[in-house]
Amino acid sequence: MYLGNPATMNLYWLAFLFSAISSIQTVVAATLQPQIPAIKSFTESNSSSPFVVTPQVAIVVDNQFQDSGSPSLFSFAKTFRSDLVAITGFDDIPDVVAGDAPSEDSSAPTVFLTLGASTANMTLFNGQETGEAYEFDITNMTYTIKGAEAIGAWWGTRTLLQQVLLSLAANNQTSIPAGSGSDNPGWEIRGFMLDVGRHWFDISFLTDLCVYASFFKMQEFHVHASDFVFDSKILNGDPNSDAWKQLYATMRFQPSEDSPVIGIVAPFANETYTREQFTNFQTTCAEHGITIVPEIDTPAHSLVISKWKPELAIPGHEDFLNISFPDTIPSVESIWEEVLPWFTANEVSIGADEYDQSLADDYIRFVNTMSDYISTTGNKSIRIWGTDEPSPTQNISTNVTIQHWFFPQGSIPVELFQQGYSVINSEQAFLYLIGKAWSDGRSLFELDTDTIWTGAPNGGSWAPNIFSPTDASNNTSPDNPLLRGSIMALWNDFGNNATTPLEIYYQLAKSIPVVAEKMWNGADDSLRESRLTRDEFEAAYPILNAGAPGQNLNRAVKGLVAPATVFKVTDIKQFPLSTGFDSVGPPYTLSFSLQLSNVTGEVPLFTGNDSVLFFDPVASSLTFQDPVTNKFYPLGTPIPFDGSSFTKVDIHATRMMTTVTVNDDDQTMLWQSHIGVSGGGLRLVNMSFAAPAGVIGVDEMNMLAEMRNVSLVIGE
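That's the beta-N-acetylhexosaminidase sequence above. Prediction below.
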């Protein structure tokens, strides 16, 4: 029996993993390689040999600044060390220490983190100074990163790590050319949003997304934490029925047990985050330079509140709160009063989109009231989604930041700027994804790179100052002082059964770094000449995606180069059998031969953290389960399992689908799910599952089944 060794990792596994990428192989060791996002400036030194990361590399934090920042410079350095170990495999890199600047005759290569970078020439595009700026100086023995603030030094460590990965892939070395450079972002806000209100995600998955996005210098994660799934089949066109009470509606923050608002989460209390969980999530994200901005969406998209207190709803339109009802605003304030102390960001979002335009005055009063309340109670400012609520007598306070997403029905950014509003660009023409929406033309599997690179007016590249792909008059200049930046968004309109969490990651995997480049560097050559070309991005992305440290959303098996066998078992003598691998991401082929007899209940054949494969005796078939959402996905086609012979099964998965063939037959069957467009018009979508590779079988199978020729092979 061969099960492999998941703990074994070649020190230079990334170099072998990407040895087929010829465009990277040709780069010489003494060249700073294009990374994501591109570095603002770098001048190579001809008088010094490269800096080489070895197992003896020292990480020293300037003792003058070790406690500066929150997280502190020293804390960032410890996270950096963990990441460097993960990338190089050098498990014995010394612990981080505080000390003075190293001398050039140091006995070991040293990374020195300090503060004091000059920000005079490293401002945002609007001219404002930023603590995210950093300078770096590289000699053969020292790599000095000098941040404007601790967060700037942190981004400098991302630059170093990316260069190590690219050097490994190019030359099987951990060398970085000597020289000096500086770098800083173009905009204050560079983020992504995930709709967790319509789709449940474990907090560990959100944490991994934070860590992944941080590697590309994103700095914000907007968590859309309340919403509902519209389902016209349930409503059945009758506005006077109580069918809306059956719709899936959630708010993901779990109040304390004695809280007066505990009832709001009662139907789905097992799909909520406790204060401790959310605090730990925010802490880990902060340790990676990312701020969490939570959203509770009101007064529209508020069905979860209406189900809790039906008297607050507008009859016949229960997803709208009746703002004029005396208890409505106090009830919303009571929710925020419960959870505001959880949040470490200085801003939160109250949603406030797509309300009834005929109730504009009530809507504006609500937004301004909530702005005052959250400012007074939580010392935080608010954001709202851009929406057109015309009123001849009232205006939303300009203290409120407006997150534009659609126009003209939503908002017109140039008019918002003229009125004095700060704006975040989330324009759906460039920045919207919907889980599993690519097959109906409403959205894409990932952000359209053609649109990002050439979809702006006149064939230009997108950047946060670009709101319209066709009308330049709807765009603004990069130096607009009211343009705060940009947030891409992934919505889950179709709910839990449309996607697994990892399928959501597949949609974000490339989308995050491509917009991260534009959010950092912009698209205006007069402002910044150093930026990635499309070819440079496409060459660097697969290396950086595979090597991004601190998480394993790809569910990769370290030490194995595809195609490769993860495990192979000729004959299983005793169930359950643990493999030590848990979950393995696509592409893969899971093969086995199974003989079953007298099975009366569902039997888990393979179990992993991200999926479970069952035998279903009623359908005489196979069913996948997503254990996070507890959704089941039956194959829907019988398979000839019986007690007299072995049935051979081959399950093949890519990021777009999972298929099965039986007994080497030519017929290929798909795992699919029924979803609808905003609840109507059911259609089938393909499902992709990670291989449930952790445990084969369960104890009761010892009397009911035999299994042989079990193998898991990664690769196309």
